[in-house]
């Protein structure tokens, strides 16, 4: 196990970091069988919706949404070689990051009624967004979905948002949907969203999750003329607009995204 800092004095260094920079992991929490939350001994000047590139030397580098920037916190679901290797890291081990990259969610004006919709690890940036925006919103509807109850993430963290933050919005409600009905109401997050959007309860939808979910939310928002800010995923390599690997429908997601605005605000 490695435990070192390249920063003299031992304090938590603060970015942006333009090159991969090693930080020790201060804690690893298990969220479910496939997902862990890593906290690093570092802080970043960043906003909810932005991401960092995490690097394991001689192996690979992949993008991860910031769950928080101070200290830097990342949620990792193990789906393949890189994320499985990340899951083997322990407190005291080093992880190299560079960033922050991309744009953030943007609050057009205070007093809105917003819905935050997260699928799988898509909830990662939404928890920080709730903490940042709740004091400025009129109402917040949080909708979290997954295939099964085992895959639902961060429900407790949303419930545990400090009373000072939760109480600052006129209302905050959290709904869960699972495809197999093992928790919350059976069905998709879009079923829950439609119930709110069709009643004219929403001014803005912010969402992060799989492409199919985002595409369905986009269609729903378009049908009911509700603006959406959707955080899209793509394969990223440079993260600074050079390689073109993250192109999605003409947008370079590492620069123009990952949050794209749909339907005007
Ligand atoms: C802007 C941005 C933010 C991201 N934020 C996060 C984050 O907060 N947390 C996080 O865990 N990942 C996040 N990702 C995805 C992450 O970068 C990697 O793609 C992921 O960790 C898989 O890498 P891998 O090398 O382990 O597996 P890969 O070899 O890339 O994937 C292995 C296989 O799993 C499939 N797969 C990929 N993702 C999933 C999934 N969610 N469920 C089921 N199968 C899947 C792939 O299609 C492939 O077949 C983000 C991506 C982007 C672009
Ligand atoms: S990752 Fe290289 S252009 Fe976006």
Describe the protein's architecture and organization.
The chain has 265 residues and is α/β, with parallel strands linked by helices. The chain has two domains: 14-101, Elongation Factor Tu (Ef-tu), domain 3 (Beta Barrel), CATH 2.40.30; 113-262, 3-Layer(aba) Sandwich (Rossmann fold). Helix content is 19%, strand content 36%. The protein has seven helices and 18 strands. The strands form four sheets. The protein has a seven-stranded antiparallel beta sheet. It has a seven-stranded mixed beta sheet with strand order 13-12-11-10-14-15-18, with helices on both faces. Strand 5 (51-56) and strand 6 form a beta hairpin. Helix 5 (189-197) packs parallel to helix 6. The longest helix is centred in the C-terminal third of the chain and has 13 residues, at 211-223. It starts with 13 loop residues before the first strand and ends with a strand. Residues 1-10 have low confidence and may be disordered. The structure holds flavin-adenine dinucleotide and FE2/S2 (inorganic) cluster. Residues 51, 62-65, 75-77, 79-83, 120-121, 124, 233-234, 236, 258 line the site of flavin-adenine dinucleotide (FAD).
């Amino acid at each position: 196990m490695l435990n070192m800092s390249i920063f003299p004095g031992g304090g938590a260094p603060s970015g942006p970091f333009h090159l991969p920079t090693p930080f020790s992991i201060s804690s690893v929490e298990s969220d479910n069988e496939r997902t862990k939350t890593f906290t690093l001994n570092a802080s970043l000047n960043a906003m909810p919706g932005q991401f960092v590139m995490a690097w394991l030397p001689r192996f690979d580098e992949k993008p991860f949404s910031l769950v928080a920037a101070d200290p830097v916190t990342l949620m990792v679901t193990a789906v393949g070689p890189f994320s499985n290797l990340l899951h083997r890291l322990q407190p005291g081990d080093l992880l190299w990051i560079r960033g922050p990259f991309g744009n953030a969610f943007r609050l057009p004006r205070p007093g809105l009624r917003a819905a935050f919709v997260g699928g799988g690890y898509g909830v990662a940036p939404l928890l920080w967004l709730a903490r940042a925006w709740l004091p400025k919103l009129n109402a917040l509807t949080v909708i979290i979905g997954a295939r099964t109850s085992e895959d639902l993430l961060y429900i407790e963290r949303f419930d545990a948002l400090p009373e000072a933050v939760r109480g600052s919005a006129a209302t905050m409600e959290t709904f869960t949907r699972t495809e197999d009905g093992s928790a919350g109401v059976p069905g998709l997050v879009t079923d829950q969203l439609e119930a709110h959007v069709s009643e004219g309860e929403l001014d803005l939808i912010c969402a992060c999750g799989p492409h199919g979910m985002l595409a369905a939310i986009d269609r729903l928002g378009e049908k009911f003329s509700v603006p959406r800010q959707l955080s899209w995923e793509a394969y990223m390599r440079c993260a600074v607009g050079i390689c073109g690997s993250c192109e999605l429908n003409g947008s370079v997601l590492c620069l123009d995204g990952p949050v794209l605005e749909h339907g005007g605000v």
